[in-house]
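Handout, section B. The chain below has 227 residues.
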Amino acid sequence: MPAASIREFADNAVDPKVRGYLHLPATPNHDGLVLTHGAGSNAQAPLLIALAETFSASGYTVLRCDLPYRQSRSFGPPGPADAARDRVGLKNALAAMNKFCSRLFLGGHSYGGRQSSMLCAELFKESPDLVAALLLLYYPLHPPRKPDQQRTQHLPDLHTPTLFVSGTRDPFGSLAEIEQAIKMIPAKTKLLPIEGAGHDLGFKGKTKEELPKLIFSEFKNFFELSS
């Protein structure tokens, strides 16, 4: 099978700008996936790269994008004032991908996944079919050791089918806490637990080769059952 190609991608005609890396499959299936990163990371996160390569090998066009806050500064976490603009940046990334993909999926690490889910909740009334399904990698349900500060306010408005991927040792939310939270979502959901993994999903060693394939397989099966 011919290898997919990867190139830098930028759309400077919008605000916030879209910037990242586009994985172009050898044989496109006309599905697109926008992936974004966690609070302390960027579009070059190893798991994002591995997932993009795995999805692209199966025909998906994948954009790994830097959120607007990361475009503004190369290190450090986002501030409270960045979140709304980061969601607009994701909306712009989806619009860019919509030009050459007939069906779109959205997902990301931690903070990026949270903003992705919030965007889908916000867009439900105006664009309910824009995102076919969500892939949330270790959703940050609450800060470590602060289980009372749950980030669930938008979940009752989330009507997008969503696959959660979480480690069994994630300090940002136990499996039991995640399971309870996703009951608030009116759309179809599924939780894929990663045994022994923390907030990084244990992305190393043998797991480094197997995890992207597992996530892809579960996501594909989940969406087919949800559609």
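Note. The chain has a mean pLDDT of 94. Compare this with the example in section A.
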